[in-house]
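#struct-help
A.M.: can someone run this one for me? Single chain, 80 residues.
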Amino acid sequence: MMAPILESLKTEYAGRMDVEFIDVWKTPEAGKAYGVRIIPTQIFFGADGKELFRHEGFFGREEILAKWKELGEVLAPKTQ
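D.P.: on it. Structure tokens below:
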């Protein structure tokens, strides 16, 4: 359920937000490295690489954008 949301955010906000999807079933070492306990888990990182927020479970598109706004990042979609 999260994959299409993440893919649309990756496309729409290209150059403003990096979106990476890691399939921890295929790369379990990545899940361990990031401390993933529940699927899905979303981890928000600042430009400096520091973790800003972590959410476990489904997180909708509008909730993701609202969280970035709450964290002080107002993201405008790329213009056509």
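A.M.: thanks! The CA atoms of residues 11 and 78 lie 9 Å apart.
D.P.: also worth noting: The first helix runs from residue 2 to 12.
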